[in-house]
């Protein structure tokens, strides 16, 4: 074998090594020396021409060359892979000093919360929480509540009728009073609270909504008087608006109660001095109420000489608007997360 050629190849093996920068150039290098027509491979094919006595030495040299090329390839391969890894790690590096993205926290609907609170309060007094249909019959929504067809009191509750004049979307939760009394016969005392949706053909604005929530309450037993209603109302008002809250009744008129009252709480903003919330009266009206009308008792099979009861109906949104200082009823029905946050904040302020 030609020693000069071997020396030249050796030099090339060393110098070409510097050109290996990536997988492609590594492959070129391998082909250049060990490929089919590679320089080292060509040398191997010359072995047959080497004299037998020199063959051992020539074989050794050839192996050394191959070994050298392979070692360089291995080293470079490792180096290239390491570089690739480093690059990848660098690009995927997580900067733990960056502030985390804030995950939006959901907040329970403020109406739901208020209703749950009222339910729990009344449950602790032995009341049942009951449900009634939103698609209601005229007789429950009006007739058995002492509001016959053609009665002017119906006009105030502009009703959505579904079928003729008989099936409607309930315009109040008061029909649940009737359903509860009819079902409760023999299981007195009747103590129920019914939160639920109600519907009226109102144009939506800041204080009106065609769909809103009422919370109906009813108690029927023997010897129930207006002072029981007053005590009950006083209790829930203090529970909701604090122990300083005072209450009063004003005469009113509902077909299904006699006497009927409007229930007021003392204004928690000005404490009676007068402000814009209470329109300088010092009082805020929060519900209608009264003693169950004898006709209604009779309609449900109760003898008014033996039985008496009281009933009340809160507007849930009105209560929530007062409690949380919300000035537009539509706020409750918008799916704007910012509102939920405002409610949440207001509530923690109230809790603090
Ligand atoms: N149902 C009445 C309304 O929607 C509110 C109401 C008033 C309910 C007096 C009552 C009550 O139970 O006793 O205007």
How does this model look, in words?
This protein is α+β, with helices and mostly antiparallel strands and 352 residues long. It is 42% helix and 20% strand. It contains eleven helices and ten strands. Bound molecules: 3,4-dihydroxyphenylalanine. Residues 172, 174, 216, 254, 257, 288-290, 311-313 line the site of 3,4-dihydroxyphenylalanine.
The helix tally amounts to 11
Report how far the terminal alpha carbons are from each other: 97 Å
Identify the strand order in the major beta sheet: 1-5-6-10-9-8-7
Structural class: alpha+beta
Uncertain residue ranges: none
So, the CATH homologous superfamily of the largest domain?
Bira Bifunctional Protein, Domain 2
- How many beta strands in the DSSP annotation? 10
Q: Roughly how many Å is the radius of gyration?
A: 44 Å
Observed structural traits:
single chain; 352 residues; alpha+beta; 7-stranded mixed sheet; 3-stranded antiparallel sheet; 10 strands; rod-shaped; binds 3,4-dihydroxyphenylalanine
Briefly summarize what is shown.
The protein has 352 residues and is an alpha+beta fold. The chain is built from 11 helices and 10 strands.
Topology record:
Layout: H1 3-16, H2 23-34, H3 39-45, H4 52-91, H5 110-123, E1 128-129, E2 135-137, H6 138-141, E3 160-163, E4 167-169, H7 175-184, E5 190-199, E6 211-221, H8 226-241, E7 247-254, E8 257-266, E9 283-292, H9 294-299, E10 308-315, H10 316-324, H11 337-351
Parallel strand pairs: 1-5
Antiparallel strand pairs: 2-4, 3-4, 5-6, 6-10, 7-8, 8-9, 9-10
Helix pairs in contact: 2-4, 5-10
The chain binds 3,4-dihydroxyphenylalanine.
